[in-house]
Design the sequence.
């Protein structure tokens, strides 16, 4: 394939690949939202003065931190049904594969938020507001990692970006496109993640400068 043919193919399939990348974003935001809520709950319990509550939540944090998300993803695929009937209500809730992938990633987010938010709470209570506020850019940077990890959802049949690339390769039927299509996929991730990382660097510098002024 010549470069012109490759470029035309990439442009032709871009809308399809964009739909796949939207699945990556949906999986990532769902994982961050649910994982942050659970991590916040665990961090709050670990910061409490009740020893059994703090100890129990610390054990739970160790568990969610140490379970590989890839393994947990397969566990959810095989253990969770595709539909769940709500008792006493004539309602059936679907549990799609993308949601299982998001829940698996949420485990890692829960462990991260529990550890880092606990440290932020402790710094806040000591009056060190600058170090406590650094939780925000750290959380956003972890979101970038979750976006990149969301491509693992392709192994359970979710039509995200990497899975969409496989579909394009099969549709075109030429091995020469393989290198270009996955380079193109990497470009999608880079263009999404790089501005966010740069923005969080600015936020971190702002927090550090503001903290230095308060200290002075």
Sequence:
């Amino acid at each position: 394939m010549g470069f012109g043919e490759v470029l035309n193919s990439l442009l032709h399939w871009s809308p399809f690949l964009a739909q796949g990348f939207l699945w990556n974003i949906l999986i990532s935001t769902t994982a961050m939202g649910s994982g942050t809520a659970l991590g916040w709950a665990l961090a709050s319990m670990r910061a409490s003065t009740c020893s059994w509550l703090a100890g129990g939540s610390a054990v739970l944090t160790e568990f969610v931190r140490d379970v590989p998300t890839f393994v947990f993803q397969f566990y959810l695929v095989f253990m969770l049904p595709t539909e769940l009937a709500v008792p006493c209500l004539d309602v059936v809730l679907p549990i799609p594969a993308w949601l299982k992938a998001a829940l698996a990633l949420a485990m890692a987010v829960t462990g991260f938020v529990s550890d880092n938010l606990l440290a932020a709470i402790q710094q806040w209570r000591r009056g060190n507001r600058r170090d406590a506020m650094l939780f925000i850019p750290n959380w956003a940077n972890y979101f970038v990692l979750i976006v990149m990890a969301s491509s693992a959802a392709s192994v359970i049949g979710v039509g995200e970006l990497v899975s969409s690339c496989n579909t394009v390769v099969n549709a075109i039927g030429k091995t020469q496109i393989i290198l270009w299509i996955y380079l193109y996929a990497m470009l999608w991730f880079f263009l999404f993640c790089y501005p966010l990382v740069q923005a969080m660097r600015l936020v971190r510098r702002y927090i550090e400068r503001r903290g230095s002024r308060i200290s002075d």
About this structure: Residues 6 and 12 are 10 Å apart (CA to CA). The chain has a mean pLDDT of 89. The beta strands are 83-86, 91-94.
